[in-house]
TrEMBL record:
It comes from the Bacteria. GO terms for cellular component: cytoplasm. Belongs to the class-I pyridine nucleotide-disulfide oxidoreductase family. The active site is a redox-active disulfide bond. Disulfide bonds join C42-C47. Binds 1 FAD per subunit. NAD(+) binds at G180, G181, G182, V183, I184, G185, L186, E187, E203, G271. The active site is at H444. FAD binds at K51, G116, T143, G144, S145, D312, M318, L319, A320, H321. Its EC number is 1.8.1.4. One of its GO terms (molecular function) is dihydrolipoyl dehydrogenase (NADH) activity. This is Dihydrolipoyl dehydrogenase. It catalyses: N(6)-[(R)-dihydrolipoyl]-L-lysyl-[protein] + NAD(+) = N(6)-[(R)-lipoyl]-L-lysyl-[protein] + NADH + H(+).
Amino acid sequence: MNSYDVAIIGSGPGGYVAAIRCAQLGMKTAIIEKYPVLGGTCLNVGCIPSKALLDSSHHYEDAVKHFEEHGIEIPGDIKVNLKQMIDRKQSVVDQTTGGIDYLMKKNNIEVYQGVGSFKDATHVVIKGEKETEIEAKNIIIATGSKPSSLPFINIDKERIITSTEALKLTEIPKHLIVIGGGVIGLELGQVYKRLGAEVSVIEYMDRIIPTMDAGLSKELSKVLKKQKFSINTSHRVKSVERKGKEVIVKADNKKGEEVTFKGDYCLVSVGRRPYTDGLNAEAAGVKLNDRGQVEVNEHLQTNVSNIYAIGDVVKGAMLAHKASEEGTLVAEVIAGQKPHIDYNLIPGVVYTWPEVASVGKTEEQLKEAGVAYKAGQFPMRALGRSRASMDLDGFVKILADKNTDEILGVHMIGARAADMIAEAVVAMEYRASAEDISRMSHAHPTFAEATKEAALAATEDRALHI
Ligand SMILES: Cc1cc2nc3c(=O)[nH]c(=O)nc-3n(C[C@H](O)[C@H](O)[C@H](O)COP(=O)(O)OP(=O)(O)OC[C@H]3O[C@@H](n4cnc5c(N)ncnc54)[C@H](O)[C@@H]3O)c2cc1C
Ligand SMILES: NC(=O)c1ccc[n+]([C@@H]2O[C@H](COP(=O)([O-])OP(=O)(O)OC[C@H]3O[C@@H](n4cnc5c(N)ncnc54)[C@H](O)[C@@H]3O)[C@@H](O)[C@H]2O)c1
């Protein structure tokens, strides 16, 4: 039987990063993945394919709506070739997952294909083409998550679908009904909206992206409505029914009135659930909590001391970069180091256009905690860079401690906010004040100038260009 210092179950951004870090630290490492392709949700049916489709559909929308204004004329009709778009997405995925194969080989990590199932706290049985058993001193559970649904919905994967099917449709929906106005619903809703679908979003809470700063929800809602999205907040979905090619969704609005939505596809994007099916965690004595997550302490150690868990299968934000940070942390803990993750500084991004990005506390959280704070906000439309590219929507908002000026949260919506948020993460990591950012030179013309201007506004209400 093969023995390892560490065996990792699951090869998503949590598992494969943990494997690389373990190998870098000199540990004999194995990784077990149930699918023939490495990379997990993020690389195969998550982050990467969704961004590939967002990019393609963005190009199409630009060509149809904005090229003429830029002085670019395309003779004849501009058409979508959905098959080519989906094929390109798949080739991006294939290149990316191929890169993980290369990294496993480069780091001498043994890859096992099959479902990993605990036999006991130091042995895992791998049920693939043949059954193999391995032994490991330490085991990391990185089994991720799966889409969740509502009890009365039958996901048929044809017309009533999850994100996985939405990434490989063979036709553009005429009317896509999206249940859940969170990250997946809005990103994939925007893909099909740009390609010509009518899109209706049904959200249970009183605003879309309800966990982010309310200012961001409001601005994104405004922009999406301008893009002709139908946004229906405070709606409680009560039935989803398929009749041939039609999907009928019934919901109660805020007043308790029944509202009926009729479309040809319905995307269910109401969150994801931790995935431990087939893992046989009980054989190792590993405890799950009542939400189905693997229970861990601050070192991401389970109740069994040599078994750790990371990523979507444990508490916290279900984000690829959070999973990867946890993978690194656990590898270093096993190696006897004392790493640390500041969860407050894990940024969150929604890749709609305009992009939405956040780090730290929201205004709602600061108010609830009774923290005295000041806010500085700067609109993207006041930037030369925004006018040059015609990306006028959005703003950057900086929240800083009223007394010390330390930055407590940064919330932005606008072109390239996903990349711009990195400056805020660095600043907060070093406990910068708003004045620190306001005194740093930001290249002109860039979208990042909005961050400096928001910092000036937060420091002394002295933004320059407004
Ligand atoms: C449509 C979509 C878009 C997303 N976009 C983003 C984004 O832009 N940015 C971002 O940060 N996050 C994004 N996410 C979330 C991101 O994909 C997850 O947070 C991330 O993949 C979690 O990583 P993980 O390693 O914990 O688990 P996963 O990536 O889910 O990987 C778990 C792996 O474990 C395997 N596995 C499970 N059980 C077993 C077993 N018993 N034996 C062997 N293998 C097993 C699974 O097959 C899977 O490959 C997106 C998600 C979706 C669905
Ligand atoms: N850009 C990114 O980082 C990215 C992209 C996609 C997915 N993800 C991750 O994947 C996970 C799942 O994404 P998601 O969009 O499914 O979840 P989410 O939690 O972002 O959004 C789910 C939405 O559905 C709403 N909802 C819940 N029950 C409902 C109901 N009965 N009726 C109507 N609305 C309801 C919620 O209020 C919420 O707004 C998220 O945790 C997210 O972090 C991240």
